[in-house]
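Run log // design_07
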């Protein structure tokens, strides 16, 4: 009886756990237009295609940006915020609080576009993306592959993107 009561109490406490966006100090998941999919692959939105084209026209292959990952992630050194330096379209350095960390912690704008395209291809149930009006890069990305599953959502926030010094 005591064991059952303790299990019930633990389940009640877990049910009150915050969502990943609340767990992480990075803030809320993106609130832009939300694509609600059926779990089946779909074509990317017209906004996605227009933004990707605008980014390609900008021709920025060397830039710096701040990247924040919002997820149910193990520790802050995975969520950031990271300063990412990209040269020739590839990550050159990633820093967290001024210290260099593994380049795998960062993402390029191209990789974010690939992540969004993959979400459409895999039939994500919710995709929320906001794009920079000048250069087209994603400023916030939120992907939920299954609204029935907890803690598998992922989001990114990009800020302060600027051309890198050559």
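design_07 sequence
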């Amino acid at each position: 009886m005591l064991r059952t009561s303790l299990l019930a109490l633990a389940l009640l406490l877990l049910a009150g756990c915050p969502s990943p966006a609340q767990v992480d100090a990075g803030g809320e998941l993106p609130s832009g237009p939300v694509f609600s999919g059926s779990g089946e692959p779909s074509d990317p939105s017209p906004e996605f295609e227009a933004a990707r084209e605008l980014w390609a026209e900008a021709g920025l292959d060397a830039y710096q940006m701040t990247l924040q990952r919002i997820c149910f992630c193990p520790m802050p050194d995975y969520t950031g915020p990271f300063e990412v330096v990209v040269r020739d379209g590839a990550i050159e350095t990633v820093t967290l609080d001024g210290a260099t960390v593994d380049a795998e912690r960062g993402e390029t704008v191209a990789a974010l576009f690939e992540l969004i395209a993959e979400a459409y291809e895999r039939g994500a149930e919710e995709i929320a993306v906001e794009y920079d009006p000048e250069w087209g890069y994603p400023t916030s990305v939120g992907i939920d592959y299954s609204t029935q599953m907890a803690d598998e959502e992922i989001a990114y926030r990009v800020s302060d993107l600027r051309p890198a010094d050559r």
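The longest strand covers residues 154-163.
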